[in-house]
């Protein structure tokens, strides 16, 4: 099972981007950017030539209170950007009533992996190691693919008393007769309404293991 990743090198980040959140204002898993030629009401991120940024909201009226952030950014290489929030600003008629702990907002946000997906750019928290970023995106794609297709797999369920992922997969491994999973490692996981999914990897081979925490049962997912 393999899905290709898409990378985005040599990108010019200077410009105005539509965003879903104000940069640094709340804890989010990642930021989504869409380049804008014209502005309407919404959230925006302006990346300037002098390596500074501002993240703000264009509102139809200022009856409430709108927060914006600004700071500096650095393009580390073709795939990574770092951002540092240095100021929080307010605008609107009720800002005097709003209490904001700026010390929780003004901080170094760290490094983000620059990843293009369709017409969007995703800024995903990164340790700055490109191969780790590529692996993480591949794992995310594989689990997203399984999430869409999980009903198309066969399962042979077995009881498990494990609590940790490694213990649960070990019980699956001991009952599985078709594939030797002993050399596979858990590289990624997530939980959906139908159960917890563990992605197992050995070199370039991948398998899914599905765990039902309510029934305490586990199974390898077999393609039909």
Output the structural class.
Answer: mainly beta
Strand content: over 45%
Strand order of the largest sheet: 1-2-8-7-6-5-4-3
Q: In DSSP terms, counting alpha (H) and pi (I) runs of 4 or more, how many helices?
A: 2
Q: What would the average pLDDT be, to the nearest integer?
A: 88
Approximate shape:
elongated
Question: How large is the radius of gyration?
Answer: 22 Å
**Secondary structure: number of strands:** 14
- End-to-end C-alpha gap: 14 Å
Residue share in helix: 10-25%
The SSE order reads EEEEEEEEHEEHEEEE
3D architecture notes:
With 224 residues, the protein is mostly beta strands. 14% of the residues lie in helices and 46% in strands. It is built from 2 helices and 14 strands; from the N terminus they run E-E-E-E-E-E-E-E-H-E-E-H-E-E-E-E. The protein has an 8-stranded antiparallel beta barrel. Strands 9, 10, 11, 12, 13 and 14 form a 6-stranded antiparallel beta sheet that branches. Strand 12 (195-202) and strand 13 (205-212) form a beta hairpin. The longest helix is centred in the middle third of the chain and has 20 residues, at 130-149. Residues 1-9 have low confidence and may be disordered.
